[in-house]
Amino acid sequence: MLDMMGMMGKVKDMQAKMLEAQEKLGDIVTEAESGGGMVKVTVNGKKELLSIEIEPELLNPSDAKMVQDLIVAAANKALADIDGKVKNEMSKVTEGMMPKIPGFDLGNIFNK
């Protein structure tokens, strides 16, 4: 028979660890670049854009479309990179908490 009290204790432990991990998502940061480093963006695990750096030589008004494209490319790369870091961090938090169930991956719980 299932140990309901033990299972409830594990659920409470997991909830506390998940809340702690969610709070730490802002501390997980990655930077990506495009245009050979001419545009750099930094994002955090909450998928917030923290900064954009643009090399001054790109700030010619006639190059505005190219700069926009480079910003989008760098931001998309950074957002893709942060997903891996968040999943890795979440898998550390949930390791050993739940049985391995195919298709049930708590590492993706904060990826929206």
From TrEMBL:
Keyword list, A-Z: Cytoplasm, DNA-binding
Pfam family, one: YbaB_DNA_bd
Top-rank taxon: Bacteria
Gene Ontology, cellular component aspect: bacterial nucleoid; cytosol
Subcellular location, record wording: Cytoplasm, Nucleoid
TM spans (from-to): none
Main location: cytoplasm
Record bears the keyword Ribosomal protein: no
InterPro entries hit by this protein: YbaB-like_sf, YbaB/EbfC
Gene Ontology molecular-function annotations: DNA binding
SUBUNIT field: Homodimer.
Function: Binds to DNA and alters its conformation. May be involved in regulation of gene expression, nucleoid organization and DNA protection.
Protein family membership: Belongs to the YbaB/EbfC family.
NCBIfam families: DNA_YbaB_EbfC
UniProt-recorded name of the protein: Nucleoid-associated protein EGI31_06605
